[in-house]
């Protein structure tokens, strides 16, 4: 299968590209700079120049492919306005890609986050949030899944709060960056809230499986660790960086503060049983041991 991918040179995307190529697919990667073009080409992908806001480039990429995987997102969480811009840009991109695939029966795999469920781990049957700082992402993905009724084999891979590799990535990576800046490895509240996690290489396998065999309109959980206490995550970060570990104000995390403070474990039982997905790479707490001072 020839697969058009956005975000193919990031931490997750580079793992997905390698997974696809290893299993006999070819890849056309959207690249927005000379640097990202070099990275994608070195990995073995063909490239198409354009950014996420270039809707004509997105349509052209989809037209050349047997399937599409969308991963790109402007990860700017510096302010509520920046988050809103990133969500709006991605929403328009998902709509454009989906429209280009209507009536083709080709697969379209999008990405969202695992939802929150009161008092328990969320499952694939729970709806993604459509309100709050990043609620627009949920609405956009729901729109893509609805295309199952219009001849698109759409599926959503829901990623946990941390997708990691070599101690980097996701919410845990943000905790690490903030700890380096502030001189304290902090956590909001009492730190007992739980975050799910997955290694990027395991997540990449699930993206391939969803592309190849997921039924139209379905959602899947790329969750290896159902929920690590944030205090435990901060403790490993503090030890690796040689910094004190303590509670900090929720405002430390800007517009993501309320999300950081939530208990949000997630399950992937249905995904494992239905798609045969089996995570095999290091857990988050193990992988954080790779953090360097």
UniProtKB/TrEMBL annotation:
GO terms for molecular function: aldehyde dehydrogenase (NAD+) activity. Pfam families: Epimerase. One of its GO terms (cellular component) is cytoplasm. CDD domains: SDR_a7. Gene3D superfamilies: NAD(P)-binding Rossmann-like Domain (3.40.50.720). Residues 3-214 form the NAD-dependent epimerase/dehydratase domain. InterPro entries: Epimerase_deHydtase, NAD(P)-bd_dom_sf, NAD(P)-dependent_oxidoreduct. PANTHER family: NAD(P)-BINDING DOMAIN-CONTAINING PROTEIN-RELATED (PTHR48079:SF6), PROTEIN YEEZ (PTHR48079). This is NAD-dependent epimerase/dehydratase. It comes from Actinoplanes friuliensis DSM 7358. The lineage of its organism: Bacteria, Bacillati, Actinomycetota, Actinomycetes, Micromonosporales.
């Amino acid at each position: 299968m020839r697969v058009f991918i956005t975000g193919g040179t990031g931490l997750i995307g580079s793992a997905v590209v390698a997974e696809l190529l290893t299993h006999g697919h070819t890849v056309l990667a959207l690249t927005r700079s000379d640097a990202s073009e070099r990275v994608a080409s070195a990995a073995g992908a063909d490239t198409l120049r354009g950014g996420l806001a270039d809707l004509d480039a997105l349509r052209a990429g989809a037209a050349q492919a047997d399937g599409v995987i969308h991963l790109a997102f402007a990860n700017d969480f510096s302010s509520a306005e920046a988050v809103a811009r990133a969500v709006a840009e991605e929403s328009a991109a998902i709509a454009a890609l989906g429209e280009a695939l209507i009536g083709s029966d080709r697969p379209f795999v999008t990405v969202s986050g695992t939802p929150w469920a009161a008092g328990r781990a969320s499952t694939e049957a729970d709806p993604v949030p459509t309100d709050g700082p990043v609620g627009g992402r949920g609405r956009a993905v729901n729109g893509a899944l609805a295309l199952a009724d219009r001849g698109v084999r759409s599926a959503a891979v829901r990623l946990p709060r941390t997708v990691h590799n070599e101690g980097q990535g996701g919410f845990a990576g943000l905790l690490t960056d903030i700890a380096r800046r502030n001189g304290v490895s902090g956590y909001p509240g009492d730190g007992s809230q739980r975050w799910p996690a997955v290694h990027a290489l395991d997540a990449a396998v699930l993206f391939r499986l969803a592309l190849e065999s997921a039924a139209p309109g379905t959602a899947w959980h790329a969750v290896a660790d159902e929920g690590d206490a944030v205090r435990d995550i901060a403790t490993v970060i503090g030890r690796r960086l040689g910094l004190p570990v303590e509670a900090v104000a929720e405002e430390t995390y800007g517009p993501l503060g309320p999300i950081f403070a939530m208990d949000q474990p997630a399950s992937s039982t249905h995904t494992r049983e239905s798609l045969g997905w089996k995570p095999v790479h290091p857990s988050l707490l193990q992988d954080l041991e790779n953090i360097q001072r």
